[in-house]
Amino acid sequence: MLLVQPLIGHRTVAGGIACDVALSAIAAYIFFIIFTVPREMLLALALLVPAFASNMALYLLSDGARIASEIVYHCAMVGFLGFAVTVILRDLFRRTVIRFDDMVGAFCGYILVALVWASLYGIAYLIAPEAFSINRDISWRLGEWHRRRALFDYLSFTTMLTLGYGDVTPVGPPAYTLTWLEAMFGQFYMAVVVAQLVGLKLAQALRGDPDRK
């Protein structure tokens, strides 16, 4: 969906709705896969429902009201995806045996972290658009919901990977703080999670891999 949504989400209303429905289905799948404790499920649902509602409301509201709905959407997604990453990491650090699913989960958590920051950038832009300097060749993407969301997804992944192409640049608060926090968290995630996986895998090898028995 990260590949498809930027290509077709802006072309027609039907295409935008289809992409948003697909993304909502993925979020629902995350909900049922990651959250298994009733208390956690209630909290995750309380975050997910406003995200669904505000996303669909964007197709019905006037331009003035859309900004408030976008902020609600991004805030709800920050909470939901951030909570999902927290549960993934908590369960990962409780493991004594690492299997393929755990490695996939760690990678998925890394992607979800980038999407959390993409929503934070979306909120920052809506509140303080002057905090970003956008190259004129791509600045037109800010005028449409799906293109703008894809642009901040791109900014988030390039920041977390410390690529820094310079076509989207923080030039003021709160963008300054968000970018260095994401770069730092991305490096921390890789160092700590990979160290955990490697450490458990080594311990597993020393005592004999139970998957081979």
How is this structure best described in words?
The protein is built from seven helices and two strands. The radius of gyration is 19 Å and the shape is globular. The chain has a two-stranded antiparallel sheet with strand order 1-2. It is 72% helix and 3% strand. The longest helix is centred in the last third of the chain and has 33 residues, at 175-207. It has one domain (5-212): Helix Hairpins (Orthogonal Bundle), CATH 1.10.287. Helix 5 crosses helix 6. It has 213 residues and is an all-alpha fold.
Largest sheet: 2 strands, antiparallel
Number of self-contained structural domains: 1
Rg over CA atoms: 19 Å
What is the name of the CATH class?
Answer: Mainly Alpha
Shape annotation: globular
- What is the typical, i.e. mean, pLDDT? 89
Number of strands: 2
**What strand line-up does the widest sheet have?**
1-2
Name the structural class. mainly alpha
What's this model, at a glance?
This protein has 213 residues and is an all-alpha fold.
Outline the fold blueprint.
Blueprint (H helix, E strand, L loop, with lengths): L4 H4 L4 H22 L3 H20 L5 H31 L6 H28 L4 E3 L10 H16 L7 E3 L4 H33 L6
Antiparallel strand pairs: 1-2
Helix pairs in contact: 2-3, 3-4, 4-5, 5-6, 5-7
